[in-house]
Specification:
Layout: H1 2-13, E1 21-30, H2 36-43, E2 46-49, E3 55-64, E4 67-73, H3 75-81
Parallel strand pairs: 2-4
Antiparallel strand pairs: 1-3, 3-4
Length: about 80
């Protein structure tokens, strides 16, 4: 989990992400027990997760209309649902 917090701190340092930017984790992490609301308050953002697998192997970020969106993504699940 420390890796997630390091990436979130790195994201926080940048003032603006005009394009969707991805940060890859070293391995998949189970994130069901992470307090998403607490993270949204701390990092002033909207966070989305895969609430089916609760796995995360990369974190994406983009700023749109003054709101920072952070996506805890399970790449395997995403690719399977795209038919790849």
């Amino acid at each position: 989990m420390d890796e997630i917090y390091k990436i979130l701190e790195l994201i926080k340092q940048n003032n603006f992400y005009q394009e969707y930017t991805t940060f890859f984790l070293n391995s998949s992490l189970f994130i069901r027990n992470i307090d998403i609301q607490e993270l949204e308050k701390k990092y002033v953002c909207k966070i989305s997760i895969n609430n089916i697998t609760y796995l995360c192997d990369n974190i994406g970020v983009v700023d749109i209309s003054g709101i920072r969106y952070i996506d805890f993504d399970d790449d395997m699940w995403t690719m399977m649902n795209k038919g790849l």
